[in-house]
Structure formats: structure tokens, C-alpha cells
Amino acid sequence: MEEIDRRIVTLLAHDGRMSFTDLARETGLSVSAVHQRVRRLEKRGVVRGYAAIIDHDAVGLPLTAFVSIKPIDPAAPDDAPDRLAHLTAIEACHSVAGDESYILKVRVASPVALEDLLQQIRASANVSTRTTVVLSTPYEHRAPEVATDPVAVQDGHRLTPD
């Protein structure tokens, strides 16, 4: 990835609503050149989308927890993500190495709601759970430092520079 594309990605990671005019000003490119580069970054999957960051307390979901899950029957198919997709309180599902198979990030309204969600997770995916409740979040949604290495890695494969 070219240095100017890394700069655009970094700027968008900090402010996904940054206008093409502001991106042009920050990069020294024309608005049309920035627009073309952003569209190319989107097409290549470098920029996968734009999202609003929600204040979960304000929308009634103040309790965050991480739920590690492990299949009760290790020989069972590894389909927990599919079995849990209908549970909208699960914000993220990460496949992990270690004792557990997945770690789920969940957001709920109360401890009672968490208890109910845990029961739904166990029943839906036939898993055991281990839960860690978040007390506070000093930071989250940090923008990444985009690598300046001319050889990048995507989907496990080394890519040559543009």
C-alpha cells in the first residue's frame, strides 16, 4: 500500500465521516484524487465500512461482558457462531486459541439480562461458558497505526507493494 493510501486510511480510522475535501487538504491531493483512492481502498476491502460509535449507557445497555465458550461435546460440529447469530446482545464473536473456542463480547441492560443471555447461549450452542464482567473501559475503538512496511499481509498471504 502506498504511503498516501496509508495516510488516508489513518485519517478515516480516526474520523470515518471526514469529507473528501478535508482528506484532500490533509493529504495534499485533489478532491477527485482522494475520492478515487478512497473508492479503490473500499473496493480492495481495506476500508470495509463506516459506523456510528454508540454510547451504550445512553441506549440502556450499560453492562458489557466477555463470555468464553467451549463445546460440551468436543466432537460436535464447530458451528457455535451460526447457532448464536440470532442473539443480538452478542456484539462480537472471536475464534480464539486456548481452552475456549470463542470469546463473545456482549452488551446487556442488567445482571439479570446477562444471566438470561448466558442461558440462551448455553442452550443455543450446547456450550459451557466462563464470563468476565467489565467494570470500566478506559479506551475502546482505537484507530490502528497503519504499517509503513511496503510488504503487507492480507488473509495470511504476503502482498507486494502497489
TrEMBL record:
Q: Which residues form the HTH asnC-type domain?
A: 1-62
Query: What are the record keywords, sorted?
Result: DNA-binding, Transcription, Transcription regulation
Query: In terms of domain of life, where is this protein from?
Result: Bacteria
**What InterPro entries does the entry give?**
ArsR-like_HTH (IPR011991), AsnC-type_HTH_dom (IPR000485), Dimeric_a/b-barrel (IPR011008), Tscrpt_reg_AsnC-like (IPR019888), Tscrpt_reg_AsnC/Lrp_C (IPR019887), Tscrpt_reg_HTH_AsnC-type_CS (IPR019885), WH-like_DNA-bd_sf (IPR036388), WH_DNA-bd_sf (IPR036390)
State one Pfam family annotation: HTH_24
- Protein name, UniProt field: Lrp/AsnC family transcriptional regulator
